[in-house]
Automatic annotation (TrEMBL):
Ranges where the Sieve element occlusion N-terminal domain occurs: 11-288
Pfam families: SEO_C, SEO_N
Residue stretches making up the Sieve element occlusion C-terminal domain: 451-670
Protein known as: Protein SIEVE ELEMENT OCCLUSION C
Amino acid sequence: MNFPSNICALNEEIIVEQLLRSHDPDGRWLDSEMLLQEVETILSFVLQNNVSMPLMTENCLTNIEVFDSKETLPYTISRISIQMLCPCIGENEIQKRRMLLFELLKGYRWDTKAMLVLGALAAVYGGLFLPSHLAICEPVAASIATLNQLPIERTKFRPWFESLSLLVKAMVAVTKCIIKFERLPFKQAKLDSNLVGETLSNIYLATYRVVKSALACLQQIPYFKQIHEATESRKAAGELSTESKRAAGELSSLGYQLLNIHNRLNKQVEECSTRTEEEINQRLRNINMGTHQDNQEILHLLFSHQDNMPLQQYSRQIAITELKEKVILLLLSKPPVEPLFFLLQQLYDHPSNTNTEQNYEIIWIPIPSSQKWTNKEKEIFDFYSNSLPWISVRQPWLMNSKVLNFLRTEWHYGDDEAMVVVIDTNGKVVNMNAMDMVLIWGVKAYPFSVSREDELWEEDNEWSMQLLLDGIHPAFETWVKEGREICIFGSENLDWVDEFVSLARKIQNLGFQIELIYLSKRGRDERTIAMEENSILISPTVQQLFWLRLESIERSKLKRIESSKSDRVIEEVTKLLDFDYGKHKGWAVIGKGSAAAIVDGGKLIERMRRIVRWGEYASELGFTEAIEMAAEKPCEQTHTVVVPFEEASKMRVVTCEKCKRPMKRFVGYQ
């Protein structure tokens, strides 16, 4: 073996064999690194000499959950500390106690075994020495320390505390190595078996040494109290008893042994880490090369970290194997913003989503603003991951840094935008950003590949209300079924808006079936327009979604059209996105589900005035038809058209053959 120790190599092999017999991990897992931070803070505080130093902890223990365990973390640590505090006499009895602790911890991984024992040490020593530590400035703490037979003046026991501090630092350093090794994604990187096997053997012994040292610390508590009593009775202020020196010496010996273990183990773990990162980097660079049977290999490469359940949906943990037959949409973003809520609406709540079995899933990969997650970012993530229907990475702050760097550099993720990378059922990346096609077509875009986006534009390349409003406005489907006409209008000139609404109401009173949607690009005016008792109020969210879709249409179209060719969709979208509100009073898009036309706001007002003047004679026309007729130049002279009564009664409206405007009706008798 590599580690020098006070037991022979044969005994080490026997101990490893015993440890492996008592090691039966059952999936229980906790965030060992987070627990270690809290334990290290507690032990550093109670062992320091400077009582004025604040306790630098944010009480994250309440956020540490033991997954797949019926026990809470405090209860588990309490059970361990009870076993560690039981008095043991002689090496044989102490060794039995060590192995009993490993039997108690058999369901946990090696890093968790070490961390739970350190947690028990912090709980006992924290409760024991905190009153003594605060006694100088807190009379109540001094009384508690006296009742517990603990020294208030630490100078007499400085060698013992120094030895204890040395051992605690060594245990923490070794435990960090164990945690780092356990977190290496060996499933995604095939390392030399000799290197891994040798490191594993040393991980077993290192965990054993941590447990042995922590048990030794707690077993010295009775002796420490006896030493304190003997010292007080003799009033030997500057001298330490033989028992005290022996106790300090034992802790120092264990500390130096652990430091020696750390030096050797750290080199091995670092070598494993370096080789693992190199292989993962190579596999990430070749992520879309070759063929795969399914999507499992690429998903394991991206998400495998601390365990086999790296994903969650609400509070339910999800294994990667559950996604085997699914098309995967990887949503890369900061904590959710409006476009992401709309994305969910399109894929989960869209009226056309009638599939009984959903054959795709969104996996949210939240990307922090910096390399380190803040507590605020964690709170935001927890809120949204437990509130929205997508799947998310469980504890994304544990994701491999190489994977995150790959997303930023190779997949070109930018901090100020969201992107949706699509992986098909065969594990191939088929679209580097499907965000636009999802915002335009929703579930109709399945399977969300680039080729499917091309197909959708070939199938439906018309400028229509369907393209603009489907999935955005909650009443759009109903309006289409009822054959109603829709007028979307926008302006920053509120006087123009007021006149437009007034004319629209008069036109509706004539019998025209139209629905109005008011949109303000800059969001300065959040007024809602209600034209009828049953009309739907337009929220500011709908306004924002409209512009988001237009921007998506523009981006999607610009990728596909040649500069020399004209395209009506891109022309109309550009008119709205680049509309000059300073030069023009407003704009309007008028039509039914499958058709739409843009009209300048100034011209539209003039035409609506003409329709109002026509009155009931135009009521049989559609609004779009009436607007088109109102654009025609009127006849210079009045003329009469005679139509037989029976024929005229069947006609919706009689229009002038020259100017195409509706004509007034009169009944004549001959």
